[in-house]
Amino acid sequence: MDCSFSTLTLYILPLLLVLYILKSLKLWMSDAPAGNFPPGPPRLPVIGNLHMINLRRPNETFMKLSKKYGPVFSIQMGNVKMVVLSGYETVKSALVDFADEFAERPHIPIFEDINEGFGIPFSHGENWKAMRRFTLSKLRDFGMGKRTIEDRIIEECGYFIKLLESLEGKPTDLTIKTNFAIGNIIISIILGYRFDYEDPALLKIMTIIDENMRLLGSPSVAIYNVLPVFQYLPGSHMKIKKNVKELHTFFKKKFAEHHKTLDKDDQRGYVDAFLIKQEEEKSDPNTYFHTKNLLGVLLTLFMAGTETTSSTIRWAISYMIQNPEIQKRVHDEIDKVIGSAVPRIDHRKDMPYTNAVIHETQRLANILPMNLPRETTTDIVFQGYYLPKGTYIIPLLESVLHDKTQFEKPESFFPEHFLDSDGQFVKRSAFMPFSAGRRACAGETLARMELFLFFTSLMQKFSYRSATEMTAFFVKPSTGLTIPPIAQKICCVPRI
Fold first, then answer.
1. Crossing angle of the two packed helices 236-260 and 291-322, in degrees rounded to 10
2. CA distance 315 to 362
3. What span, in angstroms and rounded, lies between the C-alpha atoms of 346 and 141?
4. Residues with Cβ < 8 Å from 476, sequence gap 6 or more?
5. Is the C-alpha dihedral spanning 435, 441, 445, 451 positive or negative?
6. Is 441 flagged in the annotation as binding?
């Protein structure tokens, strides 16, 4: 069987490659799309502009190209023509002012492999609307009258703090520990309970998610997404798919367990709520409440909801170590407003400086520099350029969060970006780490709650210093869908 498959592949792959090259040559010899399409660098046949893009950090290449070609420019990766949007005014105009016209997602091979078009981020049409509406509702209402999401976060903060206290200020790497804590919050929300930090199941889940987030930003996956003929060759995309199957197996086992003890009047978490809805609509052949959508939503909650929040918390601690005077001001505000009480969301309104520090961390750390891509839903003339329906759009969030027309010191850690002359917190319209418009992050409210409660609780209990060179905090990994701080040893010193 394996031999037959290998032999078949040996004959089919060259044929597919030839067909792909012929298609690429035809595209290369053709003119640009009708109308005034955005300018961009000259492209080569077959590979387009792949040769000039840093596939480990494509956002850096796009930032440079925007200086030459302007805030709206085109790039071609393989056969895929893309339009990159740069700068606050341009990105805001597309995602907010023209929200409906830029509301679709393109079909990206690796995400089609992962979710098959189901779930939320890369689903389409009515399926997307139904899943997003249901999920937002449950994240908003979950636990009312019982344990709220805030209570679950506070509980996990307590476990995490006990873990750090047991280290007695000795050097430690927070990476996996923080992933465990944030991952447990997601697990609590979807299943209704948490795992012990020593539980092998938790380690397996978080290891898979961490690996997938790293591989999703790898050069081989970037090439696979624009040259899908490479799906038959070994690469990171195969490892990602294998990992996803393992997660599916874990989730399906939990679904079966929850089915046996399902109680409409005592819902333990998101999975129970979804299964009850699925049961209610089981006679509807067109229902959106089926297993593939449930798996898609859970994968999104885990992959998007764990890594981004965990990385942001670690960036915040890193900035505190790099800026001891800012760390002291945060400590002073916490001591004044909260004292020894348990931090709660209600404290946020009275803590402008701490709130500003969290926002500045999200802005400067730039966790997701390119956002998730969009696609135009109709033909549109945007800022003088013609974009046909189905145009692949990359909103460059880094160019917004580091826009020098919007932030006084865009490349520095400066919490005053979010404070007025009286020291009160102010919102900035250019602050959009969760994106904006109809496809903005569905978990924004949850993430903001986690960031405030975790950061405030950690700062209340500990002071932080580096166990290595300070400059190491600003060395960013080469690959990854997100940009986490480099793993390193720090000392969490109890504040007594």
1. 110
2. 8
3. 18
4. 483, 485, 486
5. negative
6. yes
Question: HSE (CB half, 13 Å, CA atoms) of 341?
Answer: 10
Question: pLDDT tens-digit profile of 411-464?
Answer: 999 999 999 999 999 999 999 999 999 898 888 999 999 999 999 999 999 999
Q: Which residue type does 66 have?
A: S
What phi and psi, each to the nearest 5 degrees, are found at residue 178?
-65, -40
pLDDT of residue 363: 97
Residue 139's pLDDT is 81
pLDDT for the residue numbered 233 = 80
327 near 153, Cβ under 8 Å?
A: no
Determine how many CB atoms are found less than 10 A away from the CB of residue 253: 10
Q: Which residues of 32-48 are buried (b: 16+ CB within 10 A; e: fewer)?
A: eeeeebbebbebeebbb
Tell me which CATH code domain 31-39+57-494 carries: 1.10.630.10
User: In the beta sheet, which residues pair with residue 381?
Assistant: 386
Q: What is the pLDDT of residue 143?
A: 46
Reference 319, options 179, 160, 459; nearest CA is 459
pLDDT > 90 fraction of the chain, expressed in percent and rounded:
75
Measured CA to CA, the distance from residue 160 to residue 158 in angstroms comes to: 5
Q: What is the pLDDT of residues 10-67, one digit of tens each?
A: 444 455 555 555 555 555 555 445 569 999 999 998 889 999 999 989 999 999 999 9
What are the CB-based long-range contacts (under 8 Å, 24+) for 173-178?
173/487, 173/488, 173/489, 173/490, 174/314, 174/317, 174/490, 175/310, 175/314, 175/484, 175/487, 176/206, 176/210, 178/310, 178/313, 178/314
| 33 closest CA partner among 385, 404, 400 | 385
Q: Alpha-carbon distance 136 to 313, whole Å? A: 23
pLDDT bin (cut points 50, 70, 90) of residue 357 is very high
| pLDDT tens for each residue of 188-202 | 999 999 999 999 999
Q: How far is CA 401 from CA 75, 171, 193, 279, 411, in A?
A: 22, 32, 36, 44, 10
